[in-house]
Amino acid sequence: MAPVAKSTTCARCGEALETTSSPDFDCMVCLLGLGLEKSPVFSDRELLPEQFGQYVIEKRDDGCAWELGRGAMGVTYRAFDTSLQRSVALKLIKADFTGPTSDTRERFMREARASGALRHPSVATVYQSGIDEGTGQCFYAMELVEGETLDERVRRTGPLDVGTVAEIARQITAALAAAEKRGLVHRDLKPANVMIATGEEGDKVAIKVIDFGLAKALAEAPGTRVLTRGEFIGTPAFASPEQFTDANVDVRSDIYSLGATLWYLLTGGMPFGDRSVQKSGEPPSPGRPPLEQLKAAGVPAQFRSLLVAMLALEPAARPGVTQLAAKLAAIQAPKRGARLLGAAAVLALGGLVAYWAVTSRLSPQNGAAPEKSIAVLPFENLSRDPDNAFFTDGVQDEILTDLAKVAELKVISRTSVISYRDISGRNLRKIGQELGVAHLLEGSVQRAGNRVRVNAKLIDARNDVHLWAQTYDRDLADVFAIQSEIAKAIADQLQAKLSP
Do 93 and 58 share a structural domain? Predict the structure, then answer.
């Protein structure tokens, strides 16, 4: 039977293509680009030295060098470490990215050393970096990850299911969080730079982010952080808008690239006009991503809103790694909960009589709600753009997180209050009784450009008395400070102490 063609997009250049199940398939645009390359690592593969430092290039059965992959910055080979007696992935960096001077090469070494300090289960470890004495070639050796890249997986099988993509996103987010703590930014996060393998536990997905060897060390002083000579670093189809300018980038740039990567994994396409981006070298034009692609792929609304936020053109409008991790956990929660349904059903059946007995003793008429108890109702999204609902939910989630740190305060979970969203004419006293709390927090969020207005009101649900209200008008970058202020104000009103 002939292989079935599947429409997708090249993860390297963003060009539309037709994939088949053939392992020999490749993007013709990328192949042509390699053939016309002006600055390969070596102009003739026959001239490739067999050894760089302690690393010997391994050969395939046909006697050719065992090439693992190549990109804009260089070529990666499978090599053998003669000192530690193990195979590694050896990346040879193009001269364009290191320069002919000792100063630029030292910058390369400095960034490679910074990346080598990063240790995380979802990051391919950088073992060593160096400059070959014989050729002057800059290189670094990293952990050899057996498996296939996300790019290869999508081209082989087509788009991935939502559950798998959510787990991939969770692991990559954890890797970015570890990198952020060390002041590192990947700058070229894309499907071709993420390896996927099946773990020992059946369908468990194991992820390794590769090529952190050229991550920018943010801690270095301005003027010494530039690795290239003013050239673009990254892959245009997955790069953040700020990567096309001289602006300094941080982890929010990687979050944008992760959003584009997840979009590709879910749909096989790209969120913006990446073919034109690739040809013109210009950043994405302002506009709304084509959500119909995600809807057609069966991506739930919560995940769609998250992707829109990750792909915001303004870095400040994107979620941070902590908020992103929390959102992904919420997306994965239904799947994890489903695995427990069988056991839960048995327990529920066996304890039904006991439940009736307990609820009769704990009913509102027999006991008042704890004084120090609160539920944070879903905040109202007053912005015209419905996609800002994600941002509004984020404000509510962060306030819940801060309130959970307040000692002796009973806080109702978000899942318990979600049913009160978009209810006109809320009966707050009834809601308080249903949730078993003495206090309710409700509010609204409105975004306009880079400005945000947050209204919050604290109500005594027992008598419908407003205890406290505040309006915050701030820059978008200060929104997290607003959330902490609201949590502290509530703690003060309830005379509870913030936990250390």
Answer: yes
**N residues, the chain:** 500
| Cβ count within 10 A of residue 86 | 13
State how beta strands 51-52 and 439-448 pair: unpaired
Nearest to 309 by CA among 260, 370, 357: 260
Q: Indicate if 368 and 285 belong to the same structural domain.
A: no
Verify that 77 and 142 share a domain, yes or no.
Answer: yes
Give the domain extent around 430.
359-493
Contact by Cβ (8 Å): 170, 162: no
Both tokens of 101, joined, read 């001077």
Q: Name the packing angle between helices 321-339 and 389-403 (round to 10°).
A: 90
From the CB of residue 257, how many other CB atoms can be counted at a distance below 10 Å? 28
Q: How far is CA 441 from the centre of its chain?
A: 30
Question: Where residue 407 sits, what CATH number does that domain have?
Answer: 3.40.50.10610
Tell whether 271 and 400 lie within a shared domain. Answer: no
DSSP per residue over 150-207, as a string? HHHHHHHH-SPPHHHHHHHHHHHHHHHHHHHHTTEE-S--SGGGEEEEE-SSTT-EEE
Residue positions annotated with a catalytic role: 188
Q: What is the mean pLDDT of the chain?
A: 75
The amino acid present at 461, given as its one-letter code, is A
Structural contact between residues 377 and 442, judged by C-beta atoms closer than 8 angstroms: yes
Q: Do residues 99 and 227 lie in contact, with contact meaning Cβ atoms separated by under 8 Å? A: no
Residue 441, SS3?
strand
Mean pLDDT lowest among 237-246, 362-371, 390-399: 362-371
Percent of the chain with pLDDT over 70: 66
Q: Are residue 413 and residue 269 in the same domain, yes or no?
A: no
Average pLDDT over residues 417-430: 79
> CA torsion, points 195, 196, 198, 201, in degrees to nearest 10?
100
Alpha helix (H) residue ranges in 9-83: 28-35
Same domain (yes/no): 363, 462: yes
Instruction: Give the count of beta carbons closer than 10 Å to the beta carbon of residue 360.
Output: 9
Q: Which of 107-111, 427-431, 462-466, 472-476 has the lowest mean pLDDT?
A: 107-111
**How would you classify the pairing of strands 86-93 and 138-143?**
antiparallel
Q: Considering all CA atoms of the chain, what is the largest pairwise distance in Å, rounded to the nearest integer?
A: 87
CA atoms lying within 13 Å on the CB side of residue 114: 24
Q: By the 8 A CB rule, do 184 and 218 touch?
A: yes
> Structural domain tally of the chain?
2
Which of 104-113, 156-165, 228-237 is least confident?
228-237
Q: Verify that 440 and 323 share a domain, yes or no.
A: no
Regarding whether 387 and 261 lie in a shared domain, the answer is no
Query: What distance lies between CA 16 and its chain's CA centroid?
Result: 24
Is residue 1 in a domain? Answer: no
